[in-house]
Amino acid sequence: MPDHLHPTHPLALAPVAAPPSTVDGFVREFLLNLNSGRGVTLSNASATDKYFALAHTVRDYLMARWLEDLRRQREVQDKGVAYLSAEYLLGRQLDNNLLASGLSEIAEEALAACGIDLDVLRQQEVEPGLGNGGLGRLAACFIDSLATMGVPNVGYGIRYEYGIFRQTFVDGQQAEQPDAWLSLGSPWEFAHPEGAQTIAFGGHTETYDDEGVPRSRWIPAWNVQAVPYNYMVPGYQNGRVNTLRLWSAVATNSFDLRVFNSGDYEEAVRAQTYAENISKVLYPEDSTPQGKELRLQQQYFFVAASIRDVFDVMLPADFELTNLPERIIFQLNDTHPVIAVPEFMRVLVDEKKMDWDAAWAVTQQCFAYTCHTLLPEALEVWPVELLGRLLPRHLEIIYRINEDFLVAVREKFGDDEMRIRDMSIIGEHPVRSVRMAYLATVAGAKVNGVAELHSQLLRDKVLPDFNEFYPGKFINVTNGVTPRRFVRLSNPSLSGLITDALGTGWVTDLERLRELEAYAEDPEFRTQFAEVKAANKRLLSDVLRERDGFEVSDGHMLDVMVKRLHEYKRQMLKVLHIVTTYEGIISGRVAVGDVQPRTFIFGAKAAPGYVMAKRIIHLINAVGSVVNNDPRVEGKLKVLFPPNYNVTLAERVIPAADLSEQISLAGKEASGTGNMKFALNGALTIGTDDGANVEIRELVGDDNFFLFGMSEPEVESLWAKGYKPSSFYNADSGLRRSLDLIAAGAFSGGDRSMFEPIVSNLLYDDRFMVLADYSAYIGAQAKVDAAYADQDAWTRSAILNVARCGYFSSDRSMRDYIERIWHTAPSF
Ligand code: 26V
Description:
The protein is an alpha/beta fold. It is 50% helix and 15% strand. Strands 1, 4, 7, 8, 11, 12, 13, 14, 18 and 19 form a ten-stranded mixed β-sheet that branches. Strands 22-21-20-23-24-25 form a six-stranded parallel β-sheet, with helices on both faces. α25 (611-629) links the parallel β21 (598-603) and β22. α23 (523-548) crosses α34. The chain is globular, with a radius of gyration of 28 Å. The two termini are 30 Å apart. The structure holds ligand 26V.
């Protein structure tokens, strides 16, 4: 910096880049970015060049606000939320950032002036798929809401070099390709190698005398560098920009130099690769943790870097540590970041030399835990052997936490050894392991479930002893979705209609959608609403034609089931409905003229190692190729399964849907968030009483929701009595014919073995009781057909769904977290 510009000079403090808030200004900035950023002129620029130049123009505009926010946050020192999540399923950024900055129209005009179609540039962006499904997308919605509400927040996570795999179908079977989302670079990230943190692993611990105080320290064996990459998280047209900070692993010099100097070049490279593997790839398993060492490395890597970041960057050096709860709250997104608890204790006790009890009191106020599942096999545990080898000091700390906890349990409950064994953070079977959900529950100020039913089951079924031990600790915060991405951006036609009726305020105050209730009674509005839906279907049809060569026929109901493939979600129930309808036609029992034309759309990835899920994908494709090509069906039924369902495709499919399939076994889907997105876009739900479906139905009303199937208590009691699938098979001829058709090889060219494992699973070994809900499901689908026949009444119901689902804005979820868990406030 030249001497005449002292660091405190206003110019040195002021944010850079005057915002290009006119079309001419935008054109100038865009061309400048094209020339000096990409080294090309407009006439020889590729679509990628133009996309990057556009992204940089938007980014420059937001930069001023970002820098200002960072400065103000340092100045005011308000309490901030550190959201710790191993996943962020962000979706494309360009459109979101254009909308947030209020530049959408200006950009469109400016590009048009340069002869460029904005839509072509949108298609250039590779979405960052740094998450598996609901949990990762929820994190992305939450940080959007926090920025929009002006709440200080940093989202911490991992910059996976490869996100969720790209799915293709080979002969109807899933194949996985690496998702090299960074191969062209990302215009949205800012690397800060100078801000790297060193993260240690392995080694041993020792005790020493610190001027009369006995202390422990950790002597690690190896380390890696965690390099932060910052991403802007702009609020919706409020001039606020928060930060998402993702860590990338890089080998440390000292580590490989040591080996290198020993002359073993290959070993040095191997060591480097080993270290850099940590942030190489997102684990594509959701819900069944594999207990892999690399995964624990990933978890510790990002939380240790994040905690250090909070101490180094957020807090002044002389900060009084007992005041930490006034400055920071760490929200644990499921158990994946829970190793942060012993790490935080280690920093406070070993490094900052805080007294154990004082440190623990602080820790218990600085963490809160969200549970996202009910499946027992999805609760993470780490073998003590592994944890002790990778993080020896952390294991000691966990033991100490457990010891103190169990003393307190004995005080409260007496020497009930069974109960103590059940509540111990350390489980003994099948191998001695740390139960991460228990650790999170003991450490967290609050533990929340993600929908009313889920939270109640968490309290009553999963952690009842803990609920009794910690009255008031367990609460519910129902999930939500961001209306910016999932209504305003993904459904511009509907948004236009809503804005014409209500003005623009609904985008940040979604409860205002209530005012649409009156419009449901207006025939003119219903006509417009129906036109919007039809237009969205045509748009989807264009996308699927271009993307997959699919044709969506006019006049079809769009019946959509998009979500990860998992047995508990019961895609098989949907398959059985399709096969039943098909069998009715080919057997002549149903006149094809009487069939309501439907297009069934599936989107689903299966975890690569989940054999049954992959078989079900194969079956869906097989049923599709038979049904779609059977002339007897006369095109009345179509099964479309576009591969590689992701956020970008969701944004196209959801606005076009008529019917939303939410058919999990009651008590298994923690919340669901797709269900909310569909309802907000005017699809009617066919669903079980599960997760947030319960709340959706309560809000939209029974007349506007197709409920079917067993309730959670009914599921429990049938299971306790002994679930006998064969009795359902024997009692229902439609079910028999459908299963028999699959078993006979009707969808496998006569091969009876191909789908036999699916059929026998349903008949003999199905924890998710598909056959028990079959007849109720078929009955509810008949009601759907009847309801759809009255298009005007259907549209009225669809409008009421939109009008009554404002509650499911993630802004409301965030308000709940703020008021009941975080006790933070919007700042400045
Ligand atoms: C679990 C695991 C286990 C270890 C391997 C990697 C991995 C990755 C993700 C998960 C998370 C599974 C839990 C999950 O995604 N739950 C979903 O969370 C949504 C948001 O709360 C909720 O709507 C869904 O109902 C719930 O299934």
